[in-house]
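Side project, low priority. Logging it here so it doesn't get lost.
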Amino acid sequence: QVQLVESGGGLVQPGGSLRLSCAASGTIFSFYVMGWYRQAPGKQRELVAIIHSGSITNYGDSVKGRFTISRDYAKNTVYLQMNSLKPEDTAVYYCNYEGWNGYWGQGTQVTVSS
C-alpha cells in the first residue's frame, strides 16, 4: 500500500511561483514513475509532469519551460516547481505513483488570480 500526501498549493497572482511537494510512504520503489496531474473544473485530468528512474522527465505541452519536476529518492518525495503561473493553471493538482492505474494523492488546490 502507498500513501501520497501533497502540500504547497494556494492562491498566487499571475506571474508568481509555487512549489508543490508530495511525500510518499509505504512500499516505494524508485524505478516506478511519479508525477503530477491536474484537473480544472469541467475538464478531464491531464498530465503536468512525470519523472522516471534516472530522473528522465516528461511535461505537458502547456507547462513546458515554466514547471520543473524533481524527485528526492532518499525522502520518497517529488516536487513541482511552478513559475510564471497563469490563470489557466488553476486546478486541483494530484500526485501520482506508478502511473494512471497506480496511487493518487488527495489533491491540492492551486488558484492563479489577481
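Brief comment: The two ends are 40 Å apart (CA to CA).
Revisit when time allows.
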